[in-house]
Design a protein that fits this description.
Layout: H1 3-10, H2 18-33, E1 37-40, E2 45-46, E3 51-55, H3 63-76, E4 81-83, H4 88-95, E5 99-100, E6 106-107, E7 111-116, H5 119-122, H6 129-137, E8 145-150, E9 154-159, E10 162-169, H7 171-177, H8 180-184, E11 191-195, H9 219-226, E12 230-232, H10 236-251, H11 260-279, H12 287-308, H13 316-329, E13 334-336, H14 337-343, H15 350-362, E14 367-371, E15 374-378, H16 381-395
Parallel strand pairs: 1-12, 3-10, 3-11, 4-7, 7-10
Antiparallel strand pairs: 1-2, 5-6, 8-9, 13-15, 14-15
Helix pairs in contact: 1-2, 2-3, 11-12
Length: 398
C-alpha cells in the first residue's frame, strides 16, 4: 500500500471519481516536497512539481477532492497554499513575499500550491495568466530566480520558484479558461488532465461511511516527506525499463498538436517520483510506481486530447474502456475492425474507432496491421500484463 492509496481508500464511499482523490493526493505530496528533491537528468534537474486539472461535468462532485487536498495541506502547515479568486498579478505578489508557517518556520522562496475548486474562479480573466504559469512550470530553468517585467508595474522577482497546481472545472468552463493559444502554447502539455465522465457509485451518505475520513492521520507521513532533501536515484531495473519504453515510444510518437507526447517522459518521471515516495522515503525509483505512472500519464494524455478536441462531450473514455476490455479478455488479445464494430454496434462508430485506435497506438497499447481487406488490432502481452497488475493493485488483490 501507499500513502496516496490510503488517502483514496478513506474516501471510497464518496460519489466523486476515485481518480480525483488519487491525483489530489499526488499534488499534496508534490506541494510538500517543493524543490527539495530532484532527479538528475544530466542536462537539467527534474523537480516533482505537477499541474493537475480535474475535469468533469457539473454535479460530479469534483470539488470534494480539491477541498480536502487544500484542507490537508493547511492542517499539515508545511506548504504555502494559494486559493480563492485571484488575479495573476496578485498571485505573483504573494509568491514574491515571505510566508510564515504555523510551526514558526518561514518559506522565503516562491514555492507554493495553487488550489481551486473552480479553475475560472482561480484565475480572473487574464490573457497572460496561463502563459506565466507555463513559464514557471519548468522550475529547473529558474534555479535562483524568475523575473517578470511589465510596463508601469515594475518587476516581479520570484526566488527559486516551484509551483504545484490543483484545479477543477467542467468542460464548458475549461473551454473558456484555456484558450487555443494556451492549449497549443505548452500549458496543456505540462498539465495532467484527469477526465471523468461517470460517477463511480451512488451514495446518499445518509449512513456513516465505514472508513473514517480523518485527515489528521495523514499528517505524520507528510512531515517525514517534508524533511527529504537531495537527489532521487534510479535503480538498474527502473533505468532499463524506462530507457526501453522511451526509445520505443519516441520511435513511434503520435501526431500531437498540443505537445503532450513530447513532454510526457518528464511527466511520467515526476509522477513516478511521487508514487515512489508515497510508498517509502528511500529516494529510489520503484518499478511498480514507474509502470503505474506511465499508465496514469498516458490516460491523462488521452483525456487532454478528448477535452481539447471537443471529444470530451462524446463518450470516448467509456468506448476506449470497452475496446481495452475486449482485447484483454480475447484469448490472443486481438480483434479485427469488423469484429469490434459488430460487437459494439450502436456504441462505437467507424469514425470513433479510428480516433480511439490512433490514440491507443500512440500510447503503445495496440499494434495495428492488415490482413486482406480487414484491419487487426492486437494488444501486446506486456501491456496486458501491466494492465492486469495495475488492476489487481488498485483493487487490493495480491
Amino acid at each position: 500500500m501507499s500513502w496516496v492509496q490510503d488517502l483514496v481508500d478513506v474516501f471510497a464511499e464518496s460519489e466523486s471519481p476515485e481518480r480525483f482523490f488519487y491525483w489530489s493526493g499526488l499534488t499534496i505530496l508534490s506541494a510538500t516536497l517543493r524543490k527539495n528533491v530532484f532527479l538528475d537528468r544530466h542536462i537539467y534537474k527534474l523537480y516533482p512539481n505537477i499541474y493537475v486539472f480535474l475535469v468533469a461535468k457539473s454535479g460530479m462532485k469534483k470539488g470534494i477532492p480539491v477541498s480536502n487536498a487544500k484542507k490537508l495541506l493547511e492542517m499539515a502547515g508545511l506548504s504555502r497554499v494559494i486559493s480563492g479568486r485571484n488575479s495573476m498579478p496578485k498571485i505573483l505578489e504573494m509568491l514574491g513575499k515571505q510566508y510564515s508557517l504555523p510551526n514558526g518556520g518561514v518559506i522565503a522562496t516562491a514555492q507554493a500550491a495553487i488550489i481551486s475548486g473552480e479553475l475560472s474562479d482561480l484565475l480572473v480573466k487574464d490573457p497572460d495568466a496561463l502563459t506565466i504559469l507555463t513559464d514557471l512550470y519548468n522550475c529547473h530553468e529558474y534555479e535562483e530566480k524568475w523575473e517578470n517585467s511589465l510596463k508601469g508595474t515594475g518587476t516581479d522577482t520570484l526566488k527559486q520558484p516551484c509551483i504545484t497546481i490543483l484545479g477543477a472545472t467542467n468542460e464548458e468552463h475549461f473551454d473558456a479558461a484555456v484558450t487555443s493559444r494556451d492549449r497549443k502554447g505548452g500549458f496543456i502539455a505540462r498539465t495532467n488532465i484527469v477526465y471523468a465522465t461517470d460517477r463511480v457509485k451512488t451514495n446518499s451518505l445518509v449512513r456513516k461511511p465505514a472508513a473514517d475520513p480523518d485527515l489528521s492521520k495523514f499528517i505524520p507521513y507528510l512531515k517525514d516527506v517534508a524533511t527529504l532533501k537531495g537527489q532521487f536515484e534510479w535503480t538498474s531495473e527502473t533505468a532499463d525499463f524506462f530507457e526501453d519504453w522511451y526509445n520505443d515510444f519516441k520511435a513511434n510518437a503520435p501526431d500531437d498538436p498540443y505537445g503532450i507526447y513530447n513532454r510526457i517522459d518528464d511527466t511520467i518521471l515526476r509522477i513516478a517520483i511521487l508514487l515512489s515516495i508515497s510508498k517509502n522515503l528511500d529516494l529510489k525509483m520503484d518499478l511498480d510506481s514507474l509502470k503505474e505512472a506511465k499508465a496514469e500519464c498516458l490516460n491523462c494524455a488521452q483525456g487532454a486530447h478528448q477535452i481539447c478536441m471537443g471529444a470530451g462531450k462524446s463518450n470516448y473514455a467509456s468506448q476506449t474502456a470497452l475496446i481495452m476490455r475486449a482485447l484483454i479478455s480475447h484469448p490472443d488479445h486481438k480483434l479485427t475492425r469488423m469484429q469490434i464494430l459488430r460487437r459494439f454496434w450502436g456504441d462505437i462508430s467507424a469514425t470513433d474507432l479510428d480516433l480511439i485506435a490512433e490514440t491507443m497506438m500512440g500510447q503503445g497499447a495496440v499494434e495495428v496491421y492488415h490482413v486482406g481487406k480487414d484491419t487487426v488490432y492486437q494488444m501486446p502481452q506486456k501491456i496486458v500484463d501491466e494492465y492486469e497488475s495495475y488492476a489487481r493493485k488498485v483493487k487490493g488483490a495480491p
